[in-house]
Amino acid sequence: MKIVVAGNIGQSLVNFRGPLLRSMVELGHDVVAVAPDGDTAYAQEVEALGVRYRTVPLQRAGVGLVADLRTLLGFWRLLGEERPDVFLGYTIKPVIYGNLAAQLRGVPVRSALITGLGYAFGERRGLQRTVGWLVDTLYRLALGRARVVFFQNPDDRAEFLRRGFVDEARAALVAGSGVDLTRFVSSPPPPGPPVFLLIARLIREKGIDQYVAAARAIKARHPEARFQLLGPLDQNPSAVAPAEVEAWQREGVVEYLGETSDVRPYLERASVFVLPSYYREGTPRTALEALATGRPVVTTDAPGCRETVVDGVNGFLVEPRSAAALEAALERFVREPELIARMGAASLELARTKYDVRLVNRAMLAHLGLDRRTVPALGSGSFT
Questions:
Q1: Could you tell me whether strands 226-230 and 195-199 are parallel, antiparallel, or unpaired per DSSP bridges?
Q2: Domains plus CATH for the chain?
Q3: Which residues contact 243 (CB under 8 A, 6 or more apart)?
């Protein structure tokens, strides 16, 4: 069959969906990957998987009538040219406009992967309330007739069911995007004082401010502890300003490592992975990569994030937006360094038994009718 898979950034087609695309090709399907126009930096890597690479007009952030109509028209044209049997969109605009165009073009199997709810599902005040209403309406139109909608955590699934975006029989729960255990391999934690690492886009909702506040308090008592921050600056309305990052570095609170296309060396040099996010995550991929590397995880007791930690076993869950709770959890590793290896081993076991990308992809392919060797029943709520 011919399959079109669409996302909002070319890099994610390699880093997040690469194993899924490869599995589709290995099963003999003709696969087309779609990213925003102008985003061709990863085209060769996608094509190396045996996948054709195409683009549509798409602005990743923001809402604009003209721009979004261009996106819908772009998908309509592309799907008319390709005439696929299956469409799979992930991230909000490919999910909405890709599925709407797929309906108009009569694509037989239309599907979506919800990788988090993000800005539109936060506190709806002012402009965000209008955006939220519009997003709700578009989701209902786009997903009402989808074959299957995949969710990465039970909270998002419950939210979509409550709002009537999709019915229970077609709402599938998978264990995040999974993690490639052949690419992310375990390693012993580094010797010496603990090194904490937060990997995220530099937006407030990722808990950046709470992380800096906790680092400042802990370093006052334990100056040997290190706090690292890895990830790109962002254009989001809640983005952290470059001047703030520079001030934190001058103060000696955090080490800003910039951005990278390969987080593995940074995880290997870290002792503990930290993600104090209160953003509506799906299941944070960085947390899964930390599990596979054999690192404890400290994250929030919030949708998506809480799925990656068994509290007190492979890390700690803390209250969202609470710098004090985060500080207390992180200081445990300074005072009890033996926790690092013990909890890291538990993280690795969780990655192997729950988040192996092969398990996740096998379930998704079966539900899309692309791998008929195992087809679990839709509506069971869990397919890995």
A1: parallel
A2: 2-178+356-367 (3.40.50.2000), 195-354 (3.40.50.2000)
A3: none
